[in-house]
Each structure stands twice: as C-alpha cells, then as structure tokens.
Design brief:
2 domains, alpha/beta, 32% helix, 17 strands, Dihydrodipicolinate Reductase, domain 2, six-stranded parallel β-sheet, eleven-stranded mixed β-sheet, binds nicotinamide-adenine-dinucleotide
Length: 446
Amino acid sequence: MASTRRHFLQATATTAGALPAALGAQAPKSANDRIQFATIGIGGMGSGDTASAAAVPGTRLVAVCDIYQGRLERARERWGQDLGITRDYREILARKDVDAVIIATPDHWHARIAIDAMEAGKDVYVEKPMVQKWQDGTKVVEAAKKTGRIIQVGSQRVSSAEYRKAQEIFASGAIGELNMIEAWWDRNSAMGAWQYSIAPDATPATVDWDRFLGSAPKVPFDPTRLFRWRCYRDYGTGVAGDLFVHLFSGMHFVTGAVGPNRVFASGGLRFWKDGRDVPDILLGLFDYEKTASHPAFNLALRVNFVNGAGETSGFTFTGSEGVMTIGDGVSLTRLPKEKDPGMSSGNFDSATQQLIIAEHRRKYPIQQQTVADLGGGTVERWEAPDGYSDHAAHHANFFEAVRTRKPVVEDAVFGLRAAGPALLCNLSYETGKTIQWDPVAMQVKG
Ligand SMILES: NC(=O)c1ccc[n+]([C@@H]2O[C@H](COP(=O)([O-])OP(=O)(O)OC[C@H]3O[C@@H](n4cnc5c(N)ncnc54)[C@H](O)[C@@H]3O)[C@@H](O)[C@H]2O)c1
C-alpha cells in the first residue's frame, strides 16, 4: 500500500496595495494614485476579469465597451450608472483617464485591439488565446517592445500557487528525467460545449454587427454567431484555442519549456452537431526537443466534449523516478528503484529453473526489495487553501507590473508560445499534416 502525506500550500498573492509607492517613469498618472482601467468585451469573462481587477487595491473601473447594448446595460447595473459606456473600443483608447485595458472580446479581435491599445499608451490584460492566428503573434510581441507597454495574457494558471508548487517539485528533480506529459480537459454539458443563451432582444439595432465581424468574412446578422462565437472558426479558435492554450500555459510554466518542434492533431465533430464548424473532440501530439531546462519528451493533449462521465481535467508528468499530477491539488508519487530485478524462472523445466535460481542467488545473495515488495511507493499531496483564486492573483500581478514596470508572469512571448502550438493543432486537424514549429523564433518551419 502507498503511504500518503498531505500538505497545504502557503498562497501569498501579492496585491498592488502592498507595493512600494514610488512609481516608475511610465507608471499611471491618474488621480489619487489609482490605476484606472476599462474593459473591452464585457461578456462572461470580461465581467469576471473586471470583478477580479476591481478587487485589486488601488484600481478603479471607469468605462466598458461592448458591441451589444444589453451587456453595457448589465455593466451599469453591476458597476454603477456613471460608468462610461461605448460600442466603439477606439473611444476607450482615446480617453486620457484610462491607464490600462482588459480585452475580453471573442478571439478574432484580440491582436487588433491589443496592438491599438499599446500604441495608444495603454497597458493591456488580454484574454487567452493571445491571438486567433499564430501569424499575428509576433506583431503583438513587437508592439509591446516598441511601445514599452505592459501586456499580460489571461491564462491564470501561470499565477496559481498549485502550479508554482508543481514548478518547484519539477525543478527539484523529484520525478527524475521527464519523458512524457499528458493533459486533458473533458466535458459533458451544453454550457461546457459553448451552447450559451441567445439574447431575445438582439437585433441589428441593439448589436453593432459590423463591429462584431471586424476582419471576419461579411455574413448577414445572425445572433447565434455572436452569442456562440466559439463554435465558428471565423471568430474563435476551437477547443485548441480555448482549452489547449490553458494546458500549454500551465505545462510551460511548470517545466520551463518554450514549445514543441512537431505538432500533430486528430479529432472530429461527434455529438454537438448544432451548426458549428469546429470539432468537439481533439487529440494533439507534440515532440519537445531537449533544452537546458528539460530533456526531450512527448506531450499528449486531449479535449473531449462528449465524456459521459462528466467534466475532468488534469496533468500527468511522468519521469524516471516518479510521477507528478495536477488536478485536485498537486501530487507526487515515487517508487524507489528495486534492488533485486527478480527472475522469471517458472516456465522452464525443473533443471533449468534450478540453474536460473542458483545463478540469480549468486548475483543477489540476500533477499532484497523487488518492485512487488515496494507496494505503491510514497505519495505526497499539496492543496491550495479554500477560497484561494489564481484569477485574483493573476490580476494582482498585472496591476503590480503596471505600477512598478516590472515584468508580468505571462508576457506576449509566453502568450504566443502557448497559443502558437495550440492554433497549429487546428491547422494539422484541417490538413491532416504534421506541422514543424520553431518554438524559439515562434514560426512555422518549411
Ligand atoms: N482565462 C479564462 O479562463 C477564460 C475563460 C473564459 C473565456 N476566456 C476568454 O475571454 C474571451 C471572451 O470570452 P467570453 O466567454 O467572455 O465570451 P462572451 O461572448 O461572453 O463575451 C464576449 C463579449 O465581447 C463582445 N464583443 C464582440 N466583439 C466586440 C468588439 N469588437 N468590441 C467590443 N466588444 C465585443 C460581445 O458582445 C460579448 O459581450 C475569449 O477570448 C475567451 O477565450 C478566458
């Protein structure tokens, strides 16, 4: 039987309020030393981001933008009738009282608005995936470099106390030499499969349809495409851009890996045949070459929206000396190496058996431990305390960077290295080809 030890993590998210008062050269100049921010795209995640950002000490929400009137009205219900509202994000960027913006629009707008915001002098928190098309990634990276603005990408696991613990365990060598990582995210519900409610009052009068479409192909007004935009590749990035990106962010953070060299994906649309043009099951296989921070290893990712047993998500990091898992806390299982390799003598005739046993005992004279004797090895578990939120910590990290001009935990390069291989899964799925990726240059090869 395995012996188990359990620990609780010390979660010490810094908050902007605990930071030194001295501001860097480019820090915000707003009244009362508050960082004033606005949210562009105030739907589900935009509202969640806004709540977490507004809870960081020293911040203030001043305006929101959305192309659907109902979201703007909901924002005023929630954050006050004097909140600035607009359907045009450029009006937000023109405001002098806005230091930073949160971008939580559908994916096809992320790169455009993030670049425009940085060029307008705003710091940016942009939701994952950082870009809808991997080719736009370096444009975002360059805009951040050129303007000197802070940009944080919104995969909050990078700020998680549990992932930090996993990073520490990995760096300590506890699992020995890494050889494989598996991660999965399965669901089995209409909401999990993005069948969100469609507002009954959505009409061309209450929705700025052309501004929703942006650079996407022109199609007639269709509220399903707006409220369930993830189901269409013109606006979303499929399960890969939605969920593989979180898995890449988490495992890159834990291992220090910057990305795979080869990408292959397979899948299909098996159940949610509601007009969507993206798969509901996707499997990705990735080869990581050896670098200074890790040996060569293989990665397998899975999203399955048709899992009859319900939602489950996690990671397994397999190494020569142990296995670490994330999901329901972090756990580490280690089985000491056997001292006696054992023998398989039973299927030989009696005389041969005697010879094998005698030879074995000559080499291993004392009865020593075999794997069977060792049982399940030792298991250690770590958990974040109740109420701990990686999302709150991620926003605190962003505003700390806005104030101090110190780097964020998840900058544009990190964001592209997570989004790039995820988006290449869609290319591989569509073409049936294996894609070669240069994770350092962040370019497709060949
Ligand atoms: N970090 C996470 O865990 C997490 C979780 C959910 C969603 N997200 C990300 O957040 C983003 C938004 O997802 P969501 O679930 O909130 O979608 P949503 O549909 O609930 O919200 C998107 C909002 O953007 C608005 N919008 C569309 N085009 C716009 C434009 N040009 N200008 C301004 N507003 C526009 C829509 O009307 C809508 O209100 C996505 O990129 C998604 O990947 C991240």
